[in-house]
Amino acid sequence: MTSTIDTLLSHRSIRRFSTQSISSDDLNTILQCGRAASSSSFIQCVSVIRITCSEKRATLAHLAGDQPYVATCAEFLVFCADFHRHDQIVDDAQLGFAEQTLIGAVDTALVAQNCLVAAESMGLGGVYIGGLRNNPQPVSDLLALPQHVLPLFGLCLGYPAQSPEVKPRLPLSLMVHTDSYQPLDRAVLADYDQQVSAYYAQRTKGKMSATWSAQIKEKLTKESRPFMQDFLNKKGFSQR
């Protein structure tokens, strides 16, 4: 085992932070690690908005579903897929393709994950805030995001004031397929559901004991953020 592997395997989402700030040198190192992430065809279509204004932080916390740690964490970063930079460089840039949306989402996630792993290796913790997509237009307006810049998610960073258990992930046997896609092993799934249920029961002192399958059913039997397609098109993404 290496320290990098230890950091990756001990990942937990942190939602309670101390009041200790992150030094400018440490934040710069975190962002440098993000910048070093792989980029599809070296397009580098990612921008990061660092939010230092307390009023904007409070507004974003509300827009993300009233998640208070957005306002109180040491640093809050908004990760965006950005083709506006390219539009300024290339006068006849052909934008709006679905493939570009995929590239933007993949590259942005890679940058953000590098940032979080770097932060965790330094003793910091964090949590991603996908709730920004609950209100993508107000978020875009608040941050003055131009056309072809898509706010995908935020990242809270700070020194942890909690130490939650590592949440059990899907077994590799359900994730990793050899040579071709394999049928779902329901016995393995049932065992995993029991692990997740036990995890929540312990974490919430018996107030919650949902299985993973039950959570997925709740998520996937209704439409989530039905306005997103229109917003993507409006911002110049996935138009063709």
Overview of this structure, please?
The protein has 240 residues and is an alpha+beta fold. 45% of the residues lie in helices and 12% in strands. The chain is built from 11 helices and 4 strands; from the N terminus they run ααβααβααβαβαααα. The chain has helices at residues 3-9, 24-35, 54-63, 69-72, 84-89, 98-121, 136-142, 172-175, 186-203, 212-220, 228-234; strands at residues 46-51, 75-82, 125-129, 149-158. Helix 2 (24-35) crosses helix 6. The longest helix is centred in the middle third of the chain and has 24 residues, at 98-121. The model has no long low-confidence stretch (mean pLDDT 97).
Total of DSSP H or I helical runs spanning 4+ residues: 11
**What oligomeric state best describes the polypeptide chains here?**
single chain
CATH class identity of the largest domain = Alpha Beta
Strand order of the largest sheet: 1-2-4-3
Mean pLDDT: 97
SS content category: alpha+beta
What helical percentage do the residues reach?
Answer: 40-55%
In total, how many domains does the architecture comprise?
A: 2
- CATH architecture of the largest domain, by name, is 3-Layer(aba) Sandwich
> Over all CA atoms, what is the radius of gyration?
19 Å
Strand residue percentage:
5-15%
In whole angstroms, the N-to-C terminal distance is 46 Å
**What is the succession of H and E elements?**
HHEHHEHHEHEHHHH
Q: Main sheet, how many strands, which sense, barrel?
A: 4 strands, antiparallel
Overall spatial form: globular
Got a strand count? 4
CATH superfamily of the largest domain: NADH Oxidase
